[in-house]
Amino acid sequence: MVKRPVVAKAVHDGPEEFLTLAEFCKALKISRQTFYDWRQKGTAPTCHVLPNRQIRIALADYKTWLNERKDVA
């Protein structure tokens, strides 16, 4: 009997959720210009640019980015 190696399957809970730029700006109560300023400075969360040039932000990236900005004074 030939033993086959066990291959771990990737666990995926379903499609990743994304925020549109409008949803992101609305959640933080900021203007699009503020978002673009942050993006230019490199302080915005990781963005995904779709083929039609629309921007999406993964919900997980948004939460991580927001938690990194907590004021722990």
Q: Key terms for this structure?
A:
alpha+beta, 3 helices, about 70 residues, 3 strands, globular
Tell me the layout of helices and strands.
Elements: E1 18-20, H1 21-28, H2 32-41, E2 48-49, E3 55-58, H3 59-67
Antiparallel strand pairs: 1-3, 2-3
- Per DSSP, the total helix count is 3
Q: Supply Rg.
A: 18 Å
Mean pLDDT equals 86
Span of the ends, CA to CA: 63 Å
Estimated structural class: alpha+beta
As a percent range, the share of strand residues is 5-15%
Strand tally = 3
Low-confidence stretches: 7-11
Order of helices and strands: EHHEEH
Summarize the main sheet: 3 strands, antiparallel
Spatially, the strands of the biggest sheet line up as 1-3-2
Task: State the share of residues found in helices, binned by percent.
Answer: 25-40%
Tell me the overall shape: globular
Briefly say what this structure is:
The protein has 73 residues and is an alpha+beta fold.
How would you characterize this protein structure?
With 73 residues, this protein is α+β, with helices and mostly antiparallel strands. The protein has 3 helices and 3 strands, in the order βααββα. The protein has a 3-stranded antiparallel β-sheet with strand order 1-3-2. It is globular and about 40 Å long.
